[in-house]
Amino acid sequence: MLDERKQRILRAIVDDYISTAEPIGSRTIAKKYGLGISPATIRNEMADLETLGYIKHLHTSSGRIPSSKGYRFYVDDLLTLEQLSEDEKNLINHWYATKARSVEGIFRETSRIISQLTKNISLVLAPQLSQTAFRYLRFLPLDSSHVIAIIMTDAGFINNKVIAVPSGVTFKDFENIANVFNSYLKGRSLRDISMASIRKIRGETVNTTVFNAIINIIDEAMAQDKKNRLYLGGAGQLMEQPEFHNIDNVKRILSMLEQETLLCNILQEQRNKGLAVTIGQENKYNDMKDCSIISVTYHLDGKPVATLAVLGPTRMDYGKIISLLEFMNTNLADIFHRLHL
């Protein structure tokens, strides 16, 4: 552990570098942060911090910047979360209220909001439909000759289709069919629904035409959803960060962002960690050694539904980003609750 004075100096170095992107020296720390100690003492403490691996030189500058180890200590022991303002919260709620009309829209809007408010890359990973569980089948009357069949999963994914009402079939018959499907399939993973289950349902339904229409809806949804859904935003904004003015850094990041499977794997590894912060050299992928990734996983009914993440330079505003992701995570619960109702 670092003593209190070294912690205060390390906090000043990290805070200053996050806000300015410039190395900082002992005289600047003494002037800006009022630590009550001389530049000479600060310089000695900085030499110790560098020896211990918490800070480092940047090129030939006399100033210092945090290392991955320094950022880790800062996040774990020194960080003060920067709460979102009421204006920011109201803006987020307004975005959702006016633009999120479907589960797909919620995830897409979440990605856009995160990238705009952090000025970094946002990643939202939603699961395959086949990995989710059947929640309910519901019918809504459309007109005298048509109904809308809606299938909802536990992750909020919806598939719907208009079905013509066969001769002699009433809306009550549709409700009875829905009850049969729900009693047999609720809570079952879609990929685990067997033909044996389907045959049992067929034996209790009153109309083969309606039964076949429902099976077609499930088949169509599965055919459309063969992989995890990844929503990405903010690549252009990231390029405005000083760290990515170097063309080689830009090429490396853009190349990584084109590898959707790699990004999905990274987020899946984060899924069971709660709030996870991986910093610089802690990343096992070479293209991410100068980056950090902060992620949180949204759960619905105890099951992971979506992982929200921010990918950016190690010089990111950890306090604000963590607060934003936690707020978005809580907000999603309200959004999905309203959608399920």
Give the arrangement of secondary structure elements.
Layout: H1 4-20, H2 26-33, H3 39-51, E1 55-57, E2 64-66, H4 68-78, H5 86-99, H6 103-118, E3 121-126, E4 134-143, E5 146-153, E6 158-164, H7 171-185, H8 195-204, H9 208-224, E7 229-233, H10 235-238, H11 247-257, H12 260-270, E8 276-279, E9 291-300, E10 303-313, H13 318-340
Antiparallel strand pairs: 1-2, 3-7, 3-10, 4-5, 5-6, 8-9, 9-10
Helix pairs in contact: 1-3, 1-4, 2-3, 5-6, 5-13, 6-13
Question: Short summary of the structure?
Answer:
Helix content is 50%, strand content 20%.
Please describe what this structure looks like.
The chain is α+β, with helices and mostly antiparallel strands and 341 residues long. 50% of the residues lie in helices and 20% in strands. It contains 13 helices and 10 strands. The chain has helices at 4-20, 26-33, 39-51, 68-78, 86-99, 103-118, 171-185, 195-204, 208-224, 235-238, 247-257, 260-270, 318-340; strands at 55-57, 64-66, 121-126, 134-143, 146-153, 158-164, 229-233, 276-279, 291-300, 303-313. A hairpin with a 2-residue loop joins strand 4 and strand 5 (146-153). The radius of gyration is 26 Å and the shape is elongated. The two termini are 50 Å apart.
How would a textbook summarize the main sheet? Answer: 5 strands, antiparallel
- SSE-based structural type: alpha+beta
Low-confidence stretches: none
Instruction: Determine the mean pLDDT.
Output: 83
Q: Over the alpha carbons, how many angstroms does the gyration radius reach?
A: 26 Å
Tell how many strands the DSSP assignment holds.
Answer: 10
Strand order of the largest sheet: 7-3-10-9-8
- The tally of helices reads 13
Give the H and E element order.
Answer: HHHEEHHHEEEEHHHEHHHEEEH
Distance between the termini: 50 Å
Instruction: Determine the fraction of residues in helical runs and give it as a percent range.
Output: 40-55%
Strand content: 15-25%
Shape: elongated
